[in-house]
Amino acid sequence: MNAIKMLEEEHRNIERELLELEAIMEAEEINYSNLNHVFERLHNLWNSHEEKEAKIFQILKNEEIKMPVDKMMFEHSELSMHRKAMMAAIKSGSEINMKKALNSNGKIIIEKLRRHMEDEEGILFLITMDLFTPEELEALADLK
Fold first, then answer.
1. Of residues 128, 109, 131, the one with CA closest to residue 52
2. What is the model's pLDDT at position 3?
3. Span 40-52, mean pLDDT?
4. Which of 36, 62, 98, 130 is deepest in the core (most CB within 10 A)?
């Protein structure tokens, strides 16, 4: 599988977790174990995905391909702040803290992460698919 197809598949997996997170947010009472489980899966997917993207983005930057790579990397760090706040609220075990974090940081994470993934797919991925040969895209996928 080429690197871009691999990242798109990971976006679909992340979206599934975002849908689960939204369902938890809409429930009357917070299902703590489900929230913890969903956010842990999202966290693991996110970390792995960011590592792969960072490697690919660095290659694009080194090749002097004009793309908003710096913007994408900035968004990664911006999202990280909200993720840490969510994790702290979950670890606190306090339903009040979790509800507050879900209503602020959770909503921001969902909105920004979706927009970020759309930007990547609509800008970076399309350009990368045009600039690299299928063989080069396969080689990029080996950067795991």
1. 128
2. 80
3. 89
4. 98
Dist. CA 30–CA 89, nearest whole Å: 12
- Which domains are present in the chain? 3-141 (1.20.120.520)
Rounded Cα distance, 26 and 31, in Å: 11
Q: Residue for token digits 């994790």? A: 87
* Structure tokens, 143: 């950067």
Using the structure block, give the residue that is written with the tokens 């040969």.
133
Q: How many CA atoms lie within 13 A of 141 on its CB side?
A: 18
- Rounded Cα distance, 66 and 79, in Å: 23
Output DSSP code: residue 144.
-
pLDDT at 110 over 60: yes
Handedness of CA 98, 101, 103, 108 (dihedral sign): negative
Q: Indicate the average pLDDT of the chain.
A: 85
Q: Where are the alpha helices (DSSP H) in 63-124?
A: 69-92, 95-101, 107-119
pTM: predicted TM-score of the whole model, two decimal places: 0.83
Mean pLDDT of 46-70: 77
